[in-house]
User: Fold this.
Amino acid sequence: MSDAANTSRSATSETGEVLAGGNMGEVVRIGDTVRRPAGAWTPAVQRLLAALGESGVSGIPVPLGLDERGREILSFVEGDNLASADPAVLWSERVLSDAGALLRRLHDASVPLIGADLVWRTAAREPVEVICHNDFATYNLIVRDGELVGAIDFDLASPGPRLWDLAYLAYRIVPYAADAPDADGLDRDARLLALLDAYGTDASPRQVLAAAAERLDELEAFTRERAEETGRADLLEHAAMYRADAAALRAELGEQD
Assistant:
């Protein structure tokens, strides 16, 4: 679901570099800025980013309004995409803990926006506790010199429960995703507990895994819709993986009963 992942460049033109990884519209880098399609949700996203920055959260895009073509302008977050980093970085315990702590800071700083009259791109989910990123995953996290430095792609943000974001992060960084590279041998039980500790939650591992399965149900439906809209066969493959991974999580929960 990543829109603006700082990944390899897929094209260049006189109007900027097209950033690879965008599934919701073309994202272009021009100098130290990123330009992406705007919509009715853009004022809400820019207000969220401004609130996070004002709260002292670093490593996130700075909202810079709209350009002459009506595209949203954001500052470019320098660094490499965690999802494509060396496995030693991708699966490091420090990065995992820092990701959980960063998500907690984002959530806490978003609380003042709950109840604000804002239009979000995705529907709110109960119970509303924070403004969820809704795609807080390795492909939207940025590293420099082996350390986590920030997060990008807040376009899908909307009000929801803390666990909704935390569960998806766990799916991607513990990890439980079938496409996670070089993840064999990782102690997933220990990593999940470390992630929950870093975030600072009393949610149990079972609650997180159950929420992750529910999250994957929704992601499968969303991805199938995108596949129908775009005709992209690769999205159908992703949807099938989400379905299988959700079933695997539920089977694991069943084995623990």
